[in-house]
Amino acid sequence: xxxxxxxxxxxxxxxxxxxxxxxxxxxxxxxxxxxxxxxxxxxxxxxxxxxxxxxxxxxxxxxxxxxxxxxxxxxxxxxxxxxxxxxxxxxxxxxxxxxxxxxxxxxxxxxxxxxxxxxxxxxxxxxxxxxxxxxxxxxxxxxxxxxxxxxxxxxxxxxxxxxxxxxxxxxxxxxxxxxxxxxxxxxxxxxxxxxxxxxxxxxxxxxxxxxxxxxxxxxxxxxxxxxxxxxxxxxxxxxxxxxxxxxxxxxxxxx
Length: 255
Hints:
- With 255 residues, the protein is mainly alpha-helical.
- The chain has helices at residues 2-36, 43-56, 61-69, 75-89, 94-99, 106-118, 125-130, 137-150, 156-161, 186-196, 203-209, 219-230, 238-254; strands at 169-170, 173-174, 177-178, 182-183.
- It has a two-stranded antiparallel sheet with strand order 1-4. A two-stranded antiparallel ribbon has the order 2-3.
């Protein structure tokens, strides 16, 4: 009989503790959601919200997920919630974060990319590669950074394809007339990235391009990439560099 009473007491205590924990978690979530719904203009207030979120650790997760998923919260708060989710959950958050790489709002795609880079997530190269065609310039640039820094070599063909994407060029005008399209700065990063990834198929086209004056604006990047791809060191003089790569191409052809 005494054992039965003890078991009953343990059950009551356990249920009471569980109920208290549930109430506590609910209070944390509601409190954080109320604060994340506010539009802060003060960096100190944002820092305080960040500190409070981190203080609650895992208890903050439900609120952070809600903020990320719900467009009623201010963009900067959703941005911070994304980073904090990654900080609190670590690599375990990656599968959830990867879903936001297809989010209709560019802010969430960007925040997810940066958080996954911070978490050094190399297994999502296909998703990063798909964002190299994103309508948002800064999302494309961030996806390129993820690929370059994480060295996801299988994304190299998609990086090279950016050279032929019209979205990466801008159309200057003069007196209302369209002039020749020009390369945006992202093209320089494309060239450097194929070098970092040692994309062998880019070698021959780059050697041809580096001989032509119309590519002078990206000459340093082409030279740097060719050195990384080939493992060779070109001369310091620009004119000699062109000759060096031309001879290298001829030697390769003869062999």
